[in-house]
Amino acid sequence: MNNIILSNDVILSFPLLERNRITSVEVNRLLMRLILIFTAVFIFNYGANAQKITLKLNNTPFKSAIQQVQKLSGYSFSINERHLKVAKAVSLNIKEADLSEVVSALFKNQPFNYLIDGKIVVSVDKDEKQSVSAVRPTLKEVQQTLYGLVLNDKNEPLMGATIKVNGGSQQFITDQNGRFELPMNFKGEEITVSFIGYCPIQILAYDNLSIHLDKSLSSLDEAVVIAYGTTTKRYATGSISKISANQIENRPVNNVLSTLDGLAPGLTVTQSPGVDGGAFKVELRGRTALDRSISDDQPLFIIDGIPQTANNTSLSSIPSAIGNPSLTATQPGGVSPLNTLNPQDIESIEILKDADATSIYGSRGANGVILITTKRGKQGKTTINLNAYSGISKVPNPIEMLNTQQYLALRKKAFQLDNMSPDENNAFDLMVWDTTRYTDFSKLFLSNNASRNNIQLSINGGNENTQFLLSGNYSKEKSVFSKNLSYLRGASMLNVNHSSKDRKFNLLVSVNYSADRNNILSVDQASNLSLPPNIQLYNNDGSLAWDEGGISSGFWNPLSYLNRRYTSKTKSLNTSGQISYKVTNDLTLRSNMGYNSVLFDESSLYPLSAQNPNYTPYRYSDFATNKLSGWIIEPQAEFTKTIGPSKLNVLVGATFQAKDQNFGTINATGYSSDNLMESLQGASSITGKKSASPYRYNAFFGR
After folding, report:
1. How many CA atoms lie within 13 A of 50 on its CB side?
2. Angle between the N-to-C axes of helices 99-107 and 62-73, in degrees from 0 to 180, rounded to the nearest 10
3. Is the distance from CB of 174 to CB of 198 less than 8 angstroms?
4. 342: number of CA atoms within 13 Å, CB side?
């Protein structure tokens, strides 16, 4: 037997060829075997030396340098801590070099040396001669594996979770016990751990990692408030739409109803007057009442579990630029009761649309239910948040009306088509008024830049058992009609949540108080845009002009409305409380209780300067008061039991509700001075009326 020694310690053995013992077929077979063996040896040598590395370093720390080489080559480095402390920074520029050249350049000018065994590079002292066998214990440490464990939020192992090394293509999978292994050369590298249905997490790779993944909430798992409780969209059987605090805060408006428009399917919100403080018409899935003067088709509004005594019914009874309450049958008019609710204090709004979602409220929820939940305190350090903004509102595209020449040409054409001759009675604007005079009423009444200012201050904090939130808000907005008109509101909220250490007892208290003042005109000036553009507004002495040329035109001087002021004041208090006790893990006893009241005052003044002197004017004032108050108590018992994959929830309770409305109007005349018109003492004649409307509601409910 003869031996042939090749490179890389490959030894081949085969018997000598003897011509008289071997056939030609056997010779061919031996030659084929030799060719295959030499080919394998060639590939082995080529693969071992073909890896080329390109690397550029500029004064890079030694540890960072070897990490980069480790990534590029797949080799492992074991550097003694003592050597790392004295290692020098590395600067090199290598292109398409062998690994041996790169390693040699790395350790050049270093105060220590290195040895290579297979795919492991180990640092050794420079003044000692060490062999590979002498550093075997160190090599064994390098070849160790990093171990880790992936668990869910219930400390259960996740099988099949993916561990990916950031910046590379390597991926690893956890086994049935949630465990995974990583090569030691990835120690200190950033990895991403992910699993379907859970939030991915990024962490540095170290040994004995214990990684917890939290469930990712899809839109189906989002919590929503329902009647007397909470659920998720996944388990909600009724039609429910949710509007979050972020959607509300992104709309700088004073009334929360303004934020609902376009955010919930099937919900239509309309404000007829378009003036701050005006009432809104809210329809869920279309109009349900043909005549609103007979039956109300507004949804039931509930704030923090307490039905509102005023609901969404206009508070006012005196006509103004905000609207005419007497036209409720055709369109909403007057002051909205939800003006006093600060939109920045709202956490979420849920709209319950169909019978399945609203039936538990009985006849009160026949037109749908809108649940408004205010913000709660959160556990953590006490934080103070200040949010302030300022802006300007203006009419972006004012209506373009005819100028005087265009208007007169149109009037003349109308007479021509009707075969009529204009005279002082039927065409005083053509025959008597100055035909060169022009007033742009759109610019006169709607060109004011209305400034808007809002300041929100809140204090939030608490510990594991008690959390609190205290907030205050100041808002002021001018009117596009005049810079002297404004809407002013101040609001405050206190929310306290307390639970016992064993989590069985819980107490939640919320108090909201707000007040506003709205100073507006008695007439919407937008209705005067269609006046003839050549009407006389002022006399030569600067006083208001009436009936130019002594002819009664039937037109009222629009500037007189600026002297007819309307003022409304609203004070609103809404308190709610919830007390609950967990008798067992499945049974909870609970009681909701609350009280809310609204005190509304309005007045409209008609001084002599606002009236035509040709019609025997006299001073008079209209006053109105609307006071609403109500309370509610709702004891409840809830049983919840998980049975396998199913969940059983039973709720029973009762409602005891009462509310009262006291309404009064006063008309005062005979004032001797405009300065006395805001008081009843200055009037010589006073007439008025009062009315009361009690309401009681008792019911049992269950789900």
Report:
1. 6
2. 170
3. no
4. 30
Tokens read off for 630: 């109500």
CB neighbours of residue 274 within 10 Å = 12
Q: 3-state class of 394 per DSSP?
A: coil
Predicted confidence at residue 48, as pLDDT, reads 39
The residues that bridge with 577 in the sheet, in sequence order, are 509, 593
What tokens were used for 331?
């369109």
The rounded distance, in Å, linking the Cα atoms of 524 and 274 is: 10
One-letter amino acid at 688 equals: G
Look-up: residue for tokens 């955010």?
A: 263
411 and 426 Cβ atoms separated by less than 8 Å:
no
pLDDT of residue 273: 72
3-class SS at 465?
A: coil
What is the block-wise mean pLDDT of the chain (703 residues), using blocks of 10 residues? Answer: 33 36 49 50 42 84 83 74 84 86 87 79 70 48 72 87 82 86 83 88 85 75 68 68 82 82 82 79 74 71 90 88 70 81 90 78 84 90 92 85 93 93 89 92 86 93 93 92 87 94 92 94 83 92 88 86 91 94 93 94 92 89 95 94 84 94 94 90 92 92 87
Q: With the C-alpha atoms ordered 406, 412, 416, 417, is the resulting torsion angle positive or negative?
A: positive
Beta strands in 338-485 (DSSP E): 346-352, 369-374, 380-393, 450-462, 466-478
Phi, psi of 567 (to 5 degrees): -135, 135
SS3 at position 544: strand
**SS3 call for 369:** strand
d(CA 246, CA 530): 41
Tally of CA atoms within 13 A in the half-sphere of 421 that contains its CB: 1
Give the position of tokens 């972020």: 246
Alpha-carbon distance of 37 to 45, in angstroms, equals: 12
CA distance readout (Å), 197 to 172, 191, 217, 221, 461: 18, 19, 8, 11, 31
Place of tokens 């749908």: 368
Q: Which of 414, 422, 508, 524 is nearest to 468 (CA)?
A: 508
Query: Residue holding tokens 């042939």?
Result: 4
Q: For residue 53, how many other CB atoms are within 10 A of its CB?
A: 17
At which residue do the structure tokens 């040709």 appear? Answer: 614
- Helix, strand or coil for residue 669? strand
Name the token pair of 694.
């009690």
Surface-to-core class of residue 568, CB atoms within 10 Å of its CB (0-12 exposed, 13-18 middle, 19+ buried): buried
> Which residue(s) pair with 284 in the sheet?
267
Determine the Cα–Cα distance for residues 518 and 603; give it in Å rounded to an integer: 11
Q: What is the pLDDT of residue 331?
A: 58
- Measured in whole angstroms, the distance separating CA 553 from the mean position of its chain's CA atoms is 54
Give residue 656's pLDDT: 95
**Which residues neighbour 92 within 8 Å (Cβ) at sequence distance 6 or greater?**
55, 56, 57, 105, 106
User: Residue 545 has which token pair?
Assistant: 């002009």
Residue 122's identity, in one-letter code, is V
Residue-level pLDDT at 25: 47
Q: Are strands 209-212 and 145-151 parallel, antiparallel or unpaired?
A: parallel
Reading the block at residue 340, the tokens are: 């006093």
Three-state DSSP class for 168?
A: coil
What is the C-alpha separation between 583 and 117, in angstroms, rounded?
Answer: 69
Nearest CA to 338 among 275, 403, 278?
278
Q: Is 670 left (phi over 0), alpha (psi -120 to 50) or beta?
A: left
> And the tokens for 478?
């001018």
- The pairs formed by 681-686 with CB atoms below 8 angstroms and a separation of 24 or more are 683/621
Q: Residue 464 is encoded by which pair of tokens?
A: 């594991």
Core vs surface per residue 417-439: b (16+ CB within 10 A) or e: eeeeebeeeebbbbebbeeeeeb
The Cα 604–Cα 622 span in angstroms is: 5
Q: Would you state the pLDDT for residue 693?
A: 92
How far is CA 6 from each of CA 9, 170, 259, 284, rounded to the nearest angstrom?
6, 35, 84, 89
